[in-house]
Design goal:
Layout: E1 4-15, H1 54-66, E2 70-71, E3 74-75, E4 78-81, E5 91-94, E6 101-109, E7 115-127, E8 131-135, E9 138-142, E10 149-155, H2 162-179, E11 192-202, E12 212-215, H3 223-239, E13 247-252, E14 257-263, E15 273-274, E16 281-282, H4 285-293, H5 299-306, H6 313-321, H7 323-334, H8 343-357, H9 366-369, H10 372-383, H11 389-402, H12 406-412, H13 421-434, H14 436-443, H15 450-460, H16 467-482
Parallel strand pairs: 12-13
Antiparallel strand pairs: 1-10, 1-11, 2-6, 3-16, 4-5, 4-15, 6-7, 7-10, 8-9, 11-12, 13-14
Helix pairs in contact: 2-3, 5-6, 6-7, 7-8, 7-10, 8-10, 10-11, 13-15, 13-16, 15-16
The structure holds zinc ion (ZN).
Length: 483
């Protein structure tokens, strides 16, 4: 039986958050009441002239740099001609002949755990269409979205599975939404839209066979499923002696399968030509370098850097996926005289305590309310044994409420004075003495009862004892009874 591999390329549309639309000064808030933000340019009145938004250009260049692409100092705006009610001027302004960005790359981790570079063929600027709503026989059009800036990122057909495609899509989302903040990231409102081109070929072949396009796989929950399903469908078809037809398909999440939307007959002829009302876009190398300086540390670099902190993979993923939380962690480790051995304690405090109360999606105000240095102080108090973990949890709650440094709270509150070894030993002895039946069972081999004794003893110490120390004392006390 032939073994097949999938050949997948993604086209991702990212709606760019700017104050105005791409080619007119209309407000970019598409959620305003229908047709509130429209003008002769974005509704295609004859004779209206487009004027390119500077902010759109800056954000497009920044995005190209973040995707490791070459920024073309001269790019063209071109007309894609087609007739559809959501585009009343009968063409869309896009970049066809020379896009703003070429040949970028992003890393994905394959099923074998090895990182691979996925090539990005082109990154181009264009405008969004109006939103249409079909009501029975009638179609309603809302032009608030018409002319909003869009960036399309077209990958090379380098992806091999639904899982890789999902990772790649997620990474573009993270960069645009969380790292650069150039897109609102609301998937339900279509801020990011993804179409997948999929074909199959025998393993070892380099042929590019007939592909299908699966439209609108816009959700992290089903992108991998939709693509893997389409791969299996094509393999089954070819194995049965059939041939894949060039068509556009849609994912049906209810039936968990892709379905034909329309057959593609020949090539669409969009009669592209240069947009005569705009002329080429020229930018300087200095302009690009200025923007490069404003780039934040990006996900791949952040992941490499976090490797040195001795934290687990789950925590690393969280810090990469939520850069504000990650920066908080890094700032906390940097803000004090902490030793590297204390970093995992900081990490546990961030993921275990702070995120118990705070929303990782809206973390902006946390550093002001709970300064990273305070979290570092708390980690240091734990590391040096001056407070126990149960005390630390209580201390954290107070710190969060009052905004005070935990060092100060501990100094002024007798409840946080950890009890000494003598007192710990006395409590351990008392608890063992109070439970003769359990002691007998323990000595008879039920060693898992140790947890019961330690739990009782910690309760009696009101959390002011060090659990490791208490466990050691209880064990010693029990062993002494053996003799
Ligand atoms: Zn307008």
């Amino acid at each position: 039986m032939t073994r097949y591999e999938a050949v997948i390329g993604l086209e991702i549309h990212v709606q760019i958050k700017t104050d105005t639309k791409a080619f007119c000064r209309c407000n970019g808030d598409y959620n305003a009441p229908p047709n509130r933000h429209i003008c002769p340019v974005c509704t295609g009145a004859p004779g209206a002239l487009p004027v390119l938004s500077d902010e759109f250009v800056r954000r497009a260049v920044l995005f190209c740099l973040a995707l490791g692409a070459r920024v073309n100092l001269v790019s063209t705006f071109d007309r894609k001609n087609y007739f559809y009610p959501d585009m009343p001027k009968n063409y869309q302004i896009t970049q066809f002949f020379t896009p703003i960005g070429s040949e970028g790359r992003l890393l994905v981790t394959g099923a074998d755990g090895v990182e691979r570079a996925i090539g990005i063929e082109r990154i181009h600027m264009e405008e969004d269409t109006a939103r249409s709503a079909h009501m029975g026989e009638r179609t309603l059009l809302n032009f608030n979205r018409a002319g909003l800036p869009l960036i399309e990122v077209v990958s090379h057909p380098d992806l091999r599975s639904g899982e890789e495609a999902a990772q790649y899509f997620k990474k573009i989302y993270d960069i645009a939404v969380k790292y650069l903040g150039i897109c609102r990231g609301n998937m339900e409102e279509g801020n990011l839209r993804c179409d997948a081109n999929i074909s199959i070929r025998p393993v070892g072949s380099t042929a590019l066979n007939t592909k299908t396009e699966v439209k609108n796989v816009n959700s992290f929950a089903f992108i991998a499923k939709a693509i893997d399903h389409e791969i299996e469908r094509q393999i089954a078809l070819v194995e049965a002696g059939g041939a894949v037809e060039s068509e556009t398909r849609l994912w049906n999440p209810k039936l968990k399968r892709t379905e034909t939307m329309r057959k593609k007959s020949g090539r669409n002829d969009y009669r592209y030509f240069n947009e005569p009302d705009l002329g080429p876009l020229r930018i300087t190398a200095e302009f690009v370098e200025e923007l490069r300086k404003t780039l934040p540390e990006l996900p791949d670099a952040k992941r490499r850097r976090l490797k040195a902190y001795g934290i687990n993979n789950e925590q690393t993923d969280l810090f990469v996926g939520y850069p504000e939380v990650g920066d908080y962690f890094i700032n906390a480790t940097a803000s004090n005289t902490l030793q590297p051995s204390e970093y995992p304690i900081v990490s546990s405090l961030v993921t275990g305590e702070i995120l118990k109360y705070e929303d990782k999606e809206h973390f902006e105000t946390v550093p002001q309310r709970i300064p990273p240095q305070h979290t570092a102080s708390l980690a240091h108090l734990i590391h040096t044994g001056r407070v126990t973990w149960p005390q630390a949890k209580e201390l954290f709650a107070m710190m969060r409420e009052t905004g005070s440094d935990p060092e100060e709270i501990v100094k002024n509150d007798p409840r946080f004075t950890a009890i000494g070894d003598d007192e710990t030993a006395a409590i351990a002895a008392a608890v063992v003495a109070d439970h003769p039946a359990e002691t007998e069972k323990y000595l008879g081999g039920r060693e898992n009862l140790l947890g019961f004794f330690v739990g009782q003893a910690m309760k009696r110490a009101k959390g002011k004892a060090d659990p490791a120390k208490m466990s050691e004392m209880v064990k010693k006390e029990l062993t002494n009874r053996k003799k």
